[in-house]
Amino acid sequence: MEVSYENEGYDNDYQSKSKGSILTRKNNTMPIWGNERTMNLNTLILTNIQSSHYFKVNLYELKTYHEVIDEIYYKVQHLEPWEKGSRKTSGQTGMCGGVRGVGAGGIVSTAFCLLYKLFTLKLTRKQVTGLITHCDSPYIRALGFMYIRYTQPPGDLWDWYESFLDDEEEMDVRAGGGQTMTIGNILKSFLFKLEWYSTLFPRIPVPIQQQMEKKMSEKYPPVVEEAPRRINIPEKNFRDREDHRNRGDLSDTSRPRERIERRERSHRDYRDRDYERKPSHTNSRERSPYVSRRDDYKKSSSRSPKYGSSKRRDRDDYKSRSKY
Questions:
Q1: Packed helices 183-192 and 206-219: angle between N→C axes, nearest 10 degrees
Q2: pTM across the whole model
Q3: Please, where are the H alpha helices in 55-182?
Q4: pLDDT, tens digit, for every residue of 122-149?
Q5: Which one of 80, 187, 242, 323 has the largest count of C-beta atoms within 10 Å of its C-beta?
Q6: Which of 284, 265, 281 is nearest to 273 (CA)?
Q7: Distance, CA of 128 to CA of 145 (rounded, Å)
Q8: pLDDT: is 206 or 280 the higher one?
Q9: Residue 47 belongs to what H/E stretch?
Q10: How far apart are CA 197 and CA 80, in angstroms?
Q11: CA 48 to chain centre
């Protein structure tokens, strides 16, 4: 059911450009969820924003909503909280490193300075809707969605983001370039991931997170891969092949029946010969007295201190007998 905004100053142009359930809100004033002073930003990032020259001098001169949009169009080139190469994290632990020192955080990005500038303007629902449906720059839309993520109640995030989850408009979100993402993927990251480039979004309560996951699974059901189709081969071929293997009277040129019988006969002959063989050579050597005597000579390896080895003693005895 669409709500008419004729009494609140909404023209037909605005209604035609709007998407999803964002027009179902009757009140044009947007609530601020969480800390109304810090916009739920990280303390280190907020301190660097408020003390930066760009925010205090350049953005201070911008007084209207349209001037800030033009500044976003010309100055924003990524969505990280820090400029490339300015954040020194050596020797620090997580997000807690260098919280007391402003300079330890690095140079805060133009995108987050303008995001906080939008927060100081206290945007209305119509202005936020104009941000996320802007057609000039995807970075204007991205900062509008980031403003919603930081300031709106967690229960309203799905209503804001649902119609844009399939948006295919692309942008480079990394400082220095190198990581292109679509609007839809950025919103999915905002909903289901707490971290965004070394900073944290406000936490979403677990029941609301579970509800969003359920809605996401209903919107994008998991794709079940179909099993590959089996080719139906007629069973006749297999039967013919089995019959051909089992039939022995067929004339097969590769393996004739006579050759098979000859091979089996030769195997039987060799088997019978094994049973008729004579005793082994080793057994005959054991029964020979000469072999046993020679083995005794080999085993006798002791040396006598007077006569030397047993072989030398036998040789001397033989020489003494030959003299007589």
A1: 150
A2: 0.61
A3: 65-75, 110-120, 125-132, 138-151, 157-161
A4: 999 999 999 999 999 999 999 999 999 9
A5: 187
A6: 265
A7: 8
A8: 206
A9: helix 43-51
A10: 6
A11: 34
